[in-house]
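Question thread 4412

I'm putting together a teaching handout and wanted feedback from people who do this every day. The idea is simple: show students a protein as raw sequence, then show them the structure tokens that encode its fold, then repeat with a second protein so they can compare. Below is the first pair exactly as I plan to print it.
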Amino acid sequence: MRKWFKRVGVAAGVVVGAVGLLFAVAWFKAEADMARVYEVADPPLVLAGDAAELARGAHLYQVAGCVECHGEGGRGKVFIDAGPVARVVAPNLTPAALRGRYDVDQLAAAIRHGVGPDGRPLRVMPSGDFANLTDADTAALVAHLKALPDSDNHPGDTEIRPLGRVLYLLGKLHLVPAATLDHSPRQRTAPPQGPTAEYGAYLAQVCTGCHGADWAGQRVPGTPPELPPASNLTPHANGLAGWSQADFARVFREGKRPDGSDVHPFMPWRTYGVMTDDEVTALWLHLSGLPAKPGQPKAAKA
């Protein structure tokens, strides 16, 4: 009996030690990656300073999904509070909060590179969705932020908690998007705006953070297990096969699938519902023209 208890004790000690080592490695890996400094040297951003640019920036703040995290008016908010995983805070983006901290080009670097003014990576900022945002659209978005009414709201700071660091170590949490982006200096352009597949491909970049780089659906990194994977958006039987353009548009206008059921509330269709008819058409032409891929099972809808 004593030998049995001794063996159990040794086994328990090994397990506790292994878990402790895992958490220690995860902690220091996350700290090291969050402390890395990136150099961003894109061509200087030029703002037009006219009403058309401001209107474009306000539109982009909605259709690019910025409002989902940072809230109306850019005042910032707690975006996710997932207990032992993380407390993700989207900061205040109004001039009062950014003044003296971010200039125009530093804001552009934050948007497209996920890098703060000190060169360190921003945590969880989905810059992969915006890495190819054109210079003109980035300037419009920055102009919009600079024109927001001041707010002294401070929703707190992002905290990556122990389990979140382990998930990051295991590749299940996209903590430092800057680590996977191309930071080489370059100008960015896009096809002319209009109801074309080419312009739809440009717009669809903002969908990749949830639906995957190939738009075939995925479990959104870092989301809780009860949340279904993001849907397959390719014309596969598990995705958009059998959908019409009108069905696709209905998601954005009503939040309904072709069978009349509601899309999962994690899909911010009301935010994207401000897209113009031309933008929705462009997205449809792009997605419906993709190679069909199996992606996520059709039962896992989001």
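The second pair follows. I'd like the answer to focus on this one:
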Amino acid sequence: MASGSTAKAERRLARYTERRLAAARGEKVPLTATGWVRFTLRALGILALLIVFVPLHYLYRIFAYGSPFPMLFLRYTARVIGARVTIVGTPLRRDVFFISNHLSWVDILASAGASGTAFVAKQELAEVPVIGWLCRLNRTVFVKRENRLGVAEQINALKEALQDNWSVTVFPEGTVTDGQSLLPFKSSMLSVLEPPPPGVLVQPVMLDYGENAEEIGWVGDESGLHNAMRVMARKGTFPLRINYLEPFSPEDHRGRKAIAAKAREEIEEALVAALGRPLRDFQHVVDAVCYRPKDGTADAT
């Protein structure tokens, strides 16, 4: 027979699960009174960071290039939201193309705070109030995954970002998942590595939210604003391990598809080890990346 504390924990987990699944279906899940308090306090914390770091950033830009304040601001914003980041491995500091799995908009805050990297992220994130502006502050390159006619323009923007920022992160799954799955990697954004810029390495990155992954994940039909409010209203903190895996030279692989396959293999191995079990099929349809969970097929171009 379960103890009182165990039964209470199970009821809490059931409520979390019910709300998460409702959010993934696109339903609006209202915040509790205490949730609104936590959301408000965290929003005020972000505002305080803005008041401190944004003037410092623009003042620094008057005298020098490469301000450190966006990285610091994003690092502390992730902490205010509740992320407790642990870095595993050593991130390269320049001339590096990070390839990462993707669960949440929190990934961008935490990863940029850890390494100062710029990002390629989906256009929908740019439309999230405050979060979109924060990403632009870090010179994120926003792309529309379904806009195949704009790939050349996006690749040019990516090349400029790599030259300008020393490091760039891409999320080649083309969407966010739940931390229990890994989709086929879209290789179109890796065209910048054909041929590889001189001296640039690829470093796979595995993001691990542990048992909180499904709750934090922004999946299904949930809006970005709704997910941001839900995450910022949650009780307590959550761990995020950023695993920087062994870098490799893209020159050792024949083209972008081979580079994508190598990075995915490394990330999958690390994710399976972290979960302690095999990955499962992703449970949501993602039209923008042509993914259907029933037959497990996807367009991996």
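Top answer:
Good format. For the second protein you could add a caption like this: The chain is about 45% helix and 15% strand. The chain has a mean pLDDT of 83.
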